[in-house]
Amino acid sequence: MMLGCLDARERSYQAGEYVFHMGDVTRSLGLVLEGRVRIESVDVWGNVSVVGFSDAGQVFAETYAIIPDEPLMVDVVAEEPTTVLFLDTAKIMTTCPRACAHHSQIGRNLNLIAARKNLELERRIFHSTPKSIRGKVLLYLSSAAAQAGSNEFDIPFNRQQLADYLGVDRSALSAELSRMQRDGLIVTKRSHFILNDTGR
Questions:
Q1: With 50 as the cut, is the pLDDT of residue 123 above it?
Q2: pLDDT of amino acid 109
Q3: Which of 39, 27, 29, 33 is nearest to 13 (CA)?
Q4: DSSP state of 132
Q5: Which end of the chain is more exposed for a tag (fewer CB within 10 A), N or C?
Q6: pTM to 2 decimals?
Q7: Do 141 and 133 touch, CB atoms closer than 8 A?
């Protein structure tokens, strides 16, 4: 019922294809139906920082779509073959003449999504605050364990993506993770981590 009301458009992307480029302006948020998109920032020297990911069932670019003529500060790239449903945010934020319950619900959902992403941004700032790489890693892994409710968990990043997320060099991160394993703090293989109880 909502698809026509919100000018819904569906589009498919191949892995590595750009959904949005930095500087693009959009009136529509993207809802990932299948696959995954990577949100990243690239500076003029080509250095890439991964801002985050949106998986199936998640949205992206909603903040830019809500603010008129606001250019994106990030690129959005298909991480794998991906299908996206685009929805006009102006029509989400404006009550339709029928004032249907579905329309009100999608507006509430969008506000909740924005609040959650704001919280995730605060987490990232928190994780990148320590000056040492070990401090950044310990804070991030502690938070991930708390979210998982277990000292054994998987993270949504590979090594390069984790380095980009924490704002550190990949080789320096890998060396620090090796030292942390030798020190008995963690056990890790790829994106899987076990945090050891040091008896603190």
A1: yes
A2: 80
A3: 33
A4: S
A5: C
A6: 0.64
A7: no
Lowest mean pLDDT among 53-57, 118-122, 151-155: 118-122
Instruction: State which amino acid sits at residue 199.
Output: G
Residue type at 76 in one-letter notation: V
Write the single-letter amino acid at 176: E
CA 31 to mean position of chain CA atoms: 13
Query: Which residue shows structure tokens 């992206």?
Result: 60
As a 3-state breakdown, the chain gives helix, strand, coil percent values, each rounded to 5, of 40, 25, 35
Is pLDDT of 179 > 90?
A: yes
Token pair for 13: 């992307």
Q: Cα separations (Å) of 85 from 4, 18, 144?
A: 12, 15, 30
Q: DSSP readout, 63-123?
A: HHHHSTT---SSEEEESSSEEEEEEEHHHHHS--TT--HHHHHHHHHHHHHHHHHHHHHHH
Q: How far apart are CA 192 and CA 72, in angstroms?
A: 33
